[in-house]
Amino acid sequence: MNTAYLHRPKRKERRLDVIARSDFISNIFKTDAGQPFSFSGREYLKKIYNYSYRYLVILASRQAEKSSYLSKDMLADAILNSNDSLLYVTAQQRQADEFVHRKINRQFELNPTLEQDYLGAGSTNNIRDKVLNNGTTLTFRAIGQSADSARGIPARKIFFDEVQSILSDNIPIVTECAQSFPHNSAYFFAGTPLSTRNVLSQKYYETKQYEWLVTCDHCQFQNEPLGMNHIDINKPFLFCLNCGKDMNPKHGKWVAMNPDSTLAGFRICRLMTPTCTWRTPANDGVLDKLETYSESTFHQEVLGVPYDTGNLPITEEEVYACCDDYEFIDPFNPPPHLKEQILFASIDWAWNTKEGGQAFTILTITCLNSGRIEILFAKRFHGPRYHDPKVVLSEIAQICNKLNVKVIGTDFGIGHKENLRLTEFVNARVFEMLYTGSGIEFKWDPEAKCYKLGRTVILDLVFHRLLQGIYKFPRQKVIQPFASDILNVYVDYDPTWKRKIFDHTGIGPDDFLHCLAYASLIIEQYFSIRLR
Q1: Cβ atoms of 406 and 428 closer than 8 Å
Q2: How many CA atoms lie within 13 A of 246 on its CB side?
Q3: Given pLDDT bands bounded at 50, 70 and 90, which one contains residue 384?
Q4: Is the dihedral of CA 298, 301, 304, 306 positive or negative?
Q5: Whole-number Å distance between alpha carbons of 407 and 409
Q6: Tell me, what's the pLDDT at 496?
Q7: Is the pLDDT confidence value at 80 over 90?
Q8: Strands 450-454, 442-445: pairing kind
Q9: What phi, psi does 343 have (nearest 5°)?
Q10: What is the DSSP pairing of strand 252-256 with strand 210-214?
């Protein structure tokens, strides 16, 4: 819907005024500083504000008004729609709280009439949940390292902010919140990109990739997308690539770089904003930052484009260096010598949604062989036969019992119910693993009855063991379908968390990597050794 509808009384009649959504927002809302919110100089925002997108990705530099857009779109829906359900999620709780204080509550503070009409008696108004007098709910959660806080909250429209700092596995879990609204659900993703493999960048590449192309007033040349080519240390202004003269960023238009896509995506960078400065006494202009920021930070924070800095933790050659000359065992007809071995299993249960792509439960069987963790068998449960979880569970139990597996390590979150059932069917002891954002390698939680693993620390150890050859894989052609999971993982330095993070691109699963992590932990704990 391209318009917002306001009913205004005139004498004894009621007249229907139809105005653009951007005009409605200008009339109702203000800037954070309390000034009138104007689109003058921000013409590039109108195409974003005035269309009702079902799926939208915004790639933005810092201070490019992405959070302002999310808040105003959320508030516009909240007051125009009765009994709507809106969910805002971001990486950290402090970010969610700041969004509520500065972007949501602030608008009610600046408009007492709005506050009286929608946050009066009978409403709910706190930092995490708001229920307006028209029945619309607004919910705010942090899901950076765990999606549990948002799991199961019904929401027609979901706003993902600072997506680059949210683990990609958490996004499909949260999108499930909108499954009760198949005809009008909507998903917005916004943030500042890190690397090209980051989930935000991957989502943007799937869209139309709208770029703001500025036409020079002097030579009428339509310039390429705004970026490093428009920056010269000796030119403190936005200049034309054809004639070199100054350009007005207002004189641009959105052009799709990937027009065949059906999804909307826009890149907003500092160079197109009316608040862009080039040299300032405070040393915070574009050219000042060019001289003081690292190359990666300048690209990400000022230009709003991803920048790769050697973000692959391991190469194909290094992974396949772990291969040896053997095949996987037949778990239902194992070789006799395995009767003398202590065997372990690890399971990564699947979470299948269209948002997360194809994912399937994976099982590995391992043992400790001459100081190395040997992968004896691995299986990904895909195909029509395994659409029934009971069939998957039954086969896993049969394999573990046939091989006399001693200990099973398995993920706690998605597979918790399956794990409870698994314990009824297997002879092995079952230990659940739960990733956390902790910097501690692992600890046993007696109340939850699971191991809590510091995700970054544990995965860092897996890559270290791979590089040290501590894992033993079968021939390359045998392990390749599983080893590709390892190569789908990248590493970023996340300034939000101020630490290195491992995530996967979304173009393929990373399940086998987690099976290696679980197997390593249970083997180390069983034998009271450290394999490093």
Answers
A1: yes
A2: 7
A3: confident
A4: positive
A5: 7
A6: 66
A7: yes
A8: antiparallel
A9: -110, 150
A10: antiparallel
Side chain identity, residue 404: N
pLDDT digits (tens, 9 = 90+) for 489-510: 888 776 666 677 787 765 578 8
Q: What is the 3-state secondary structure (H, E, C) of 362-378?
A: EEEEEEEECCEEEEEEE
List the 210-214 sheet strands across, edge first: 124-125, 129-131, 137-142, 85-90, 157-161, 186-191, 55-60, 264-268, 210-214, 252-256
At 510-522, the pLDDT tens digits run 899 999 999 999 9
Q: Which tokens sit at 393? A: 């569970």
Q: What are the two backbone dihedrals, phi and then psi, of residue 133, each rounded to the nearest 5 degrees?
A: -65, -20
Helix ranges (DSSP H) in 381-510:
389-402, 416-425, 455-468, 476-487
Round to whole Å and give the CA distance between 504 and 168.
7
DSSP reduced 3-state for 85: strand
How many residues are listed for the chain in this entry?
532
Three-class DSSP category at 142: strand
Q: Is the pLDDT of residue 332 over 70?
A: yes
Helices 389-402 and 416-425 cross at an angle (nearest 10°) of 40
- 340 and 316 in contact (C-beta within 8 Å)? no
430, pLDDT greater than 70: yes
Q: Which residue has the tokens 């040290």?
A: 468
Is the pLDDT confidence value at 212 over 50? yes
Strand spans (E) along 312-449: 343-348, 362-369, 372-380, 407-411, 429-436, 442-445
Distances (CA, A) of 184 to 157, 189, 206: 8, 17, 21
